[in-house]
Q: What sequence folds into this?
């Protein structure tokens, strides 16, 4: 899998999947076009995550509720690391995620090669489409995180203990949004 090219030995990881009654091509297309954030739960959790920034900068322009697609995810911090059209996409993000604000560095693909610098964490997130050969497709998402040093691993570990259940819920809801989109075709 392409994700292995960017992180083989994560400090933290999580995998979710859904079986979809559709051809792999339809699932991959839906992955790119579906509103992944259509759930009020996702909107609420993302709103909570952005609350510290909004409290510190109340005059900042409020983002209107909008569709959350892979394109908008990439326009808001995640960057495209790799894509094998029809099969897998890998996104990346880096920064001190455990901080309430200022926790994402500007994306640069070259920063995802080699060791993670001290003081930050690096995350890679993929969506992989797997053909079962039976008219069904498995859509898998995996998140892998590596920290640059032991102190950051401890900080991220404490953060992950709290955030992981919600992060997993968001990813499962995203997978189900793609499944619903395919079911409606």
A:
């Amino acid at each position: 899998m392409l994700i292995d090219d960017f992180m083989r030995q994560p400090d933290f990881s999580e995998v979710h999947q859904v079986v979809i009654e559709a051809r792999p091509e339809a699932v991959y297309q839906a992955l790119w076009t579906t509103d992944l954030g259509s759930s009020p739960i996702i909107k609420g959790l993302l709103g909570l995550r952005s609350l510290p920034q909004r409290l510190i900068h109340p005059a900042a322009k409020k983002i209107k509720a909008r569709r959350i697609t892979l394109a908008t995810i990439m326009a808001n911090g995640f960057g495209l690391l790799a894509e094998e059209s029809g099969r897998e996409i890998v996104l990346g993000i880096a920064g001190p995620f455990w901080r309430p604000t200022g926790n994402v560095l500007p994306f640069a693909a070259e920063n995802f090669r080699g060791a993670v610098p001290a003081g930050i964490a690096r995350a890679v997130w993929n969506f992989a489409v797997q053909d079962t050969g039976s008219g069904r497709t498995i859509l898998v998402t995996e998140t892998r995180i590596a920290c640059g040093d032991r102190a950051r691993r401890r900080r991220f570990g404490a953060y992950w203990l709290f955030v992981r259940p919600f992060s997993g819920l968001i990813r499962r809801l995203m997978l189900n949004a793609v499944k619903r989109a395919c079911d409606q075709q």
